[in-house]
Amino acid sequence: MRYTVKLTVTVVEQITEYARFIAELRRAPENAQRWLERVYDSIDKLDHMPQRCGLAPENGHRPYEIAAC
Questions:
Q1: Nearest residue to 69 (alpha-carbon basis) of 11, 23, 10
Q2: Is the pLDDT of residue 16 over 80?
Q3: Burial of 15 by CB count in 10 Å (0-12 exposed, 13-18 middle, 19+ buried)?
Q4: What do you get for the CA distance between the two ends of the chain, in Å?
Q5: Does the pTM exceed 0.85?
Q6: Mean pLDDT in residue range 28-38
Q7: Buried b (16+ CB within 10 A) or exposed e, 24-54
Q8: Confidence of residue 35 (pLDDT cuts 50, 70, 90)
């Protein structure tokens, strides 16, 4: 069974902002790129194995599950 993984605009903005922080303020663009790839690789795997991560503390406040990985 495959699951649908949806990212909110806020999450995408936060991921992008943190990658920019690593690249620019930490002066480590290669690290930022590797970090970004790992984040999106992990997100991509959730459609196959969503239960490999626990649920986020805010999970009880939404009508859908929120993974914490």
A1: 11
A2: yes
A3: middle
A4: 20
A5: no
A6: 97
A7: eeeeeeeebeebbeeeeeeeeebeeebeeee
A8: very high
